[in-house]
Fold this protein.
Amino acid sequence: MAETTAKEGKKQLDEGLERGMAALTEEKIEKVINRVLTGETGARLQAYVETCIHCGLCDLVCPDYCLTWGDGEEGGKFERELMGVDYRYCKGCLRCVESCPTGALAKEKETPGLADRLRVPLFPGLIP
Ligand code: SF4
Ligand code: SF4
């Protein structure tokens, strides 16, 4: 609960929080910021189509229709097969990773330029 300390004339928000904040030094904060800026990026989706069973669950949950499908064949029958992900539209929500029953979709650390190199265009004839 917020209290006003008569001595300092300022509000005390929370004793534990204020104690923790007081222990933070500029050096500690700078170290963390530098580590994030130089060594970390977001998570992205990686597709391992070799272990995909083309069940389509990922496509059902993707909010942006980023999964790319092509024609294939299984046991002599026509089927649609997952070709990959068009990373231009993928927002990295990873809902597809959570839905995949085989682990063909996985969360991986993003590195600069990787998404561009791996993307499989949704409409290769229309948009290169
Ligand atoms: S991470 Fe999200 S936006 Fe990207 S393909 Fe998967 S479900 Fe779609
Ligand atoms: S949910 Fe997994 S196994 Fe099913 S189509 Fe998508 S990537 Fe393939």
The CA atoms of residues 56 and 79 lie 11 Å apart. The chain has two domains: 11-39, 43-118. The chain has five helices and six strands. The radius of gyration is 24 Å.
